[in-house]
Amino acid sequence: MKLKDFINWYEKLVPLELQEDFDNSGLQFGNLDREIKKILISLDLDNNCLNRAIKEKYDLIFTHHPVIFHPLKNIIEQDNSVNTRLISAIRNDIFIYSSHTNLDSVEFGVSDALAKQLRLINTKILDSHKNKIGYGKYADIDEIFAEDFIYDLKNKLNLEKVIVYGNTNRKIKRIAVLCGSGGHFIQNCIDNNCDVFVSSEFKYDEQIDAQDNNLVLIDIGHYESEKFILEPLRQTIQKSFPEIKIDVNYLEKPTRKIF
After folding, report:
1. What's the whole-model pTM score?
2. At 38, phi and psi to the nearest 5?
3. Which sequence spans correspond to the domains of the chain?
4. Which residues bind a divalent metal cation 2 per the record (predicted)?
5. Could you say which of 11, 144, 193, 196 is the most buried, measured as most Cβ atoms within 10 Å of its Cβ?
6. Are 36 and 128 in contact (CB under 8 A)?
């Protein structure tokens, strides 16, 4: 399979037009006419991912977060830098493709994977752009105390610790989830009468807004919220390209520890 054939297939499934203006999804580096036989899927092009790709001779690294996000004024090799990883990928003839906010917003995207991990059913779009497209999901569950839901969430997501803002000594019913940084979507949760919002990276003023509106925030971590898309994405690609070897790369260590 040529790289251009894979990209044409994928961008029909997850169109680039769905990405935000600030984003840089799409091909980061590569030769469209080259054959692709091995793909490694990862949230980021970190050292662990790149070293594995080099060692095991993958042709394409597929990342969620764009490797080239901000405009590059120069490309200088420095220890543990994006530039150095990009240079190393180019030297080793490894191509890079990224799918960020367009994968966030499609029906089967990143937040859907988190919702499924929490076994939410009959979900609706939290911030709807058009039919089946938008950010985040919300759904009703059987009424439960917030603290019991938190313990259940930690078990389903295999998390030792989470950060919680708000009153947990109350019953809840409507749960919203959004992968990555969720602070900008707190008003959407309020407008949709959600009791709990599962996401990450809430700013102080966002925490206050949520608590003033009786919305419980559960910060599970950015990486921890998005990693569940990797395996479903692998399966989707593998189904269409059974002849290609496709693997998933996870971080070796947690991205954070809460003592």
Report:
1. 0.94
2. -140, 130
3. 3-103, 107-223
4. 64
5. 196
6. no
Tokens of 129: 């752009």
What is the distance between the alpha carbons of residues 53 and 246, in angstroms, rounded to a whole number?
Answer: 12
Q: Which residues contribute to the annotated binding site?
A: 64-65, 104, 222, 226
Strand partners, 83: none
Question: May I ask the CATH class of domain 107-223?
Answer: alpha beta
Q: Which residues pair with 217 in a beta bridge?
A: 165, 197
Write out the chain's pLDDT in tens, 259 residues.
999 999 999 999 999 999 999 999 999 999 999 999 999 999 999 999 999 999 999 999 999 999 999 887 888 887 767 888 999 999 999 999 999 999 999 999 999 999 999 999 999 999 998 878 999 999 999 999 999 999 999 999 999 999 999 999 999 999 999 999 999 999 999 999 999 999 999 999 999 999 999 999 999 999 999 999 999 999 999 999 999 999 999 987 666 777 7
Which CATH number is 3-103 given?
3.40.1390.30
- Tell me how far apart the alpha carbons of residues 49 and 41 are, in angstroms, rounded to a whole number: 9
